[in-house]
Design goal:
Number of strands: 5
Mean pLDDT: 96
Distance between the termini: 27 Å
Number of helices: 5
Order of helices and strands: EHEHEHEHEH
Strand content: 15-25%
Largest sheet: 5 strands, parallel
Radius of gyration: 12 Å
């Protein structure tokens, strides 16, 4: 698993799937446009919603949960990275949310 910056995530949004693994109440504050929301606890049962041929960038609030998710996805045959600093870093960088 590779940790990428928010700027790298922004640049790769058109070629990778952003996977937001935060809980529903966290996502209510906004998320990256076009991201797929699957809470971390639901990942195993909803894995079929991800295309294994498309790289994944896992995102959470601060980067801890998304690192664990990226590791799990890589172990399941996906190519996954985590976004360092999570949505805290994304919003601090002034990047757009929905």
């Amino acid at each position: 698993m590779t940790e990428i910056t928010v700027n790298e995530a922004e640049q790769r949004r058109s070629t990778a799937r952003i996977l937001d693994v935060r809980e529903d109440f966290e996502v209510a504050d906004g998320m990256i446009a076009g991201a797929l929301h699957i809470p971390m606890g639901q990942l195993q049962e909803r894995l079929s919603e991800l295309d294994p041929t498309v790289p994944v960038i896992a995102v959470c609030r601060s980067g801890n949960r998304s690192a664990a998710v990226a590791d799990a996805l890589n172990g399941a045959g996906f190519t996954a990275d985590t976004m360092a600093g999570g949505m805290i870093a994304w919003t601090r960088a002034g990047l757009p949310t929905t």
